[in-house]
Amino acid sequence: MAVYIEATFDPLVSHGREESLVRWFTSARSWFFGGLAQAEASSEADVVSHVLVTQEIDGPSHRLMNLSDQWSQFEEFLRRFPWWVDVRYSEGDIEIVGGRARHLVADGSIWQVSARLPMSRPDDPVQCGAMVEFLREALDVANPSFGRIELNDFDDYTNLDAALRRRLRASLRESREILRGYAWVTVCPPEILSQLGGVAELESSGAFYRVVSLQSGGVLLQASETLADYTNAVMQRIFSTLAPVLPRGEPSLDPAHPHLGFVSRDAASVR
To answer: What global pTM score does this model have?
Structure first.
């Protein structure tokens, strides 16, 4: 069982596109990489880090080992806004945690950052809360166009991208007008937050366990205290609240994305 954390950005990013990458991986270092870096440095465990950075789409790749010792160089790479970044901590042949950044369109105007984490206790409020706080810290001043935390899904497509067979590029480009999907944790940009009536309106709706304002103007919506509590009933509740900003269409299961949950109703029918 594992968790996927993702955010996407566009030209409206705050504080620069390079800073969005630096802040993501610096936050991951604080929340997820720290103990692993110590284990790697001590050589007491079979923990190793692998970093791959590709600056240009057709350019050579740079590899770094022992990330904690080469963090300054890694950050220099991030400040050049590379095409692809992949960070992995592994024990033997098993990946423990990972992080990634990549351009989603050729001109670099839309890009994505993500993290992959093990989840042994989806009912643990502390473990779940740490992931939410990581996401808040990483995105607080960045003004992302979308974000989410999912269980057992590691795909670019959101639940509604898959269930409505939406074209990914259209979904990305319209993400400040139409919410791309919903998950245990969903990040809405300020443009969509405004359509929903603002933070106070979402808090008073009772649909969310927690509504977290971001300094950049968006909001982080936590559906339930833990991932285990994210039931169909909770999903139905947040769907009804978010329906005014969701894409139209009758969703149906996509066999290529069996782990993605969704409400089998056209959002337009509840507006």
So the answer is: 0.94
